[in-house]
Amino acid sequence: MKASGYLAFYKELSKRFHEIGSIFPSSKSLASVMIKPLEEIDGPRRILEVGPGTGPFTREILRKMTAEDTLTVCEINRTLLRQLRTSLQTNPDYLRHQDRIEFIEGPVQQLRSVSDQRQFDVIVCGLPFSIFKPEVAEEIMKLFHDILAPGGHLTFFEYWGFRDIFTFINTPKNRRRMKAVDSVIEKWQHLAELSGAVNTKVCLTNFPPAKSTDFCFRPA
User: Fold this and answer.
1) For the domain that residue 127 is a member of, what is the CATH number?
2) Which of its termini does the chain have fewer beta carbons within 10 Å around, N or C?
3) Is residue 63 scored above 90 in pLDDT?
């Protein structure tokens, strides 16, 4: 990532941690793990990336895209989205696929209001569930489930050991919130296990180490 990308990231982090929820941009190694489900689906693939930030996952997605694939990128932070779009102007993978890429500024929940509700084969999610209220986490997970095509994959991540570390320094109220968010994720994981498959992988080469999770909701 260029210096301008880091500058934009940390400038926005100081103002909007509630949107970003991460203290470091994700590494290329974590990006490679997060987009692994693209290899599981034959084209043409409809891809949704949510919360790209400075674009580490975006660039890996673009590298793996074919001429038949489409990509929708949804980012709530205007500054980060503008920085991402500017940085991609010199990316050869982006230039090759730009006619099949759509950028959406705003919360991902707005996809619910699209009259011809879209479906995606792969959803790559960089949202910080650990800082959400449980009802927001539930709303987003249900949306993802509803807009995933049959057999589609949802990947997301959290920092490995994050909850164990912060158990000792969090307030009781925040611990209850995080536990409720865990329960939301566990509910949807159970559903994915019943209908398809769940795979997890720890990426030790990310800083901090991160655990990626892949939910595959296969058709009945």
Assistant:
1) 3.40.50.150
2) C
3) yes
